[in-house]
Amino acid sequence: DIQMTQSPSSLSASVGDGVTITCRASQGISNCLAWFRQRPGKAPEPLIYAASSLQSGVPPKFSGSGSGTDFALTISSLQPEDFATYYCQQYYSYPWTFGQGTKVEIK
Amino acid sequence: EVQLVESGGGLIQPGQSLRLSCTGAGFNFRNSFMAWVRQAPGQGLEWVGLIRNRGYSATTEYAASVQGRFTISRDDSKSIVFLQMDSLKTEDTAVYYCTRVQYTYVLFDQWYFDSWGQGTLVTVSS
Asked: How sure is the predictor about B10, in pLDDT bands with cuts at 50, 70 and 90?
């Protein structure tokens, strides 16, 4: 199975700040990577697919990068709704696997 | 607008069976791949399995943790995907989400989740 490792596990930031979350795959996955935001008590919301393509309706303050084993999600100008947990996920091979999550908290 | 609504969750004893349903609306259900993802209380996300469309013979894939106990099926006439869960264990306790799998090609085949239901809670406890 492909292991997905996110860094950091949590971070604190202020409204208006920019942050970057990284995700590393245990083997190469081309660009078969997605990112999700999950607010407390809610279903995950798709943000990015194909490592850097925005899902429909997602604002461009979210951007993704990377290929192979190393990926990143950058969020510019954090707003209150962005304080949530973020997950990466690979769909390169079965079983599809998620990172353990990165919790973005208000400083 | 794509809508996915799960139902069938509840409290069940270990060893028993439960069937979840997910009804889709607002999209071409019969052409879509569908999947289930679960989340144990306070934990991360875990992919459970997937069912392809009839063009791919409605074949399925499963996580090792549920292989042989869970079965995904579909009724395209009613736009419903099912998750039959047998021999349930306490560690199957989770919110179960239904998702639609979208396809595109960007340098590589991209099969990705683009819509999620609100989830249904399954609690396995004696």
From this structure: very high
